[in-house]
Write a structure and sequence with these properties.
Strand order of the largest sheet: 1-2-6-3
Number of strands: 6
Keywords: Ribonucleoprotein, Ribosomal protein, RNA-binding, rRNA-binding
Pfam family, one: Ribosomal_L23
Strand content: 25-35%
Function: One of the early assembly proteins it binds 23S rRNA. One of the proteins that surrounds the polypeptide exit tunnel on the outside of the ribosome. Forms the main docking site for trigger factor binding to the ribosome.
InterPro entries: Nucleotide-bd_a/b_plait_sf (IPR012677), Ribosomal_uL23-like (IPR013025), Ribosomal_uL23/eL15/eS24_sf (IPR012678)
Family: Belongs to the universal ribosomal protein uL23 family.
Helix content: 25-40%
Number of helices: 4
Distance between the termini: 38 Å
Radius of gyration: 15 Å
Structural class: alpha+beta
């Protein structure tokens, strides 16, 4: 497995995606993140393992289509993003949940 610079890995993951579907996937140890579009699966795996100190079993990626947005007569597009669904090893789900959803 190639080695990645840990300073660059933190910039790959933008934010966790919390939707109804993502919440249902959390019951199966799958967590959804928004990542930069040029990130590869090995880079995403290394970034999640480095940020959350968990063992990643599998990474699925999805590049949804850009949505049109209109302001008056001007038509533009929302920014492109990539969605990564990361499967975490059994037993590590507590580590990642403590970071994503801290107790208040």
């Amino acid at each position: 497995m190639p080695s990645f610079d840990p300073r660059d890995l933190a910039d790959l993951v933008r934010r966790p995606i919390v939707t109804e579907k993502a919440t249902i996937l959390m019951e199966q140890n799958k967590y959804t993140f928004e990542v930069i579009p040029k990130a590869s699966k090995p880079e995403i795996k290394a970034a999640i393992e480095d940020l959350f100190q968990v063992k990643v079993v599998k990474v699925n990626t999805n590049l949804p289509p850009r949505k049109k947005r209109r302001v008056g007569k001007f038509i533009g597009y929302k920014p492109q993003y990539k969605r990564a669904i990361v499967t975490v090893a059994p037993g590590d789900e507590d580590k990642i949940r403590q970071v994503l959803f801290p107790e208040v």
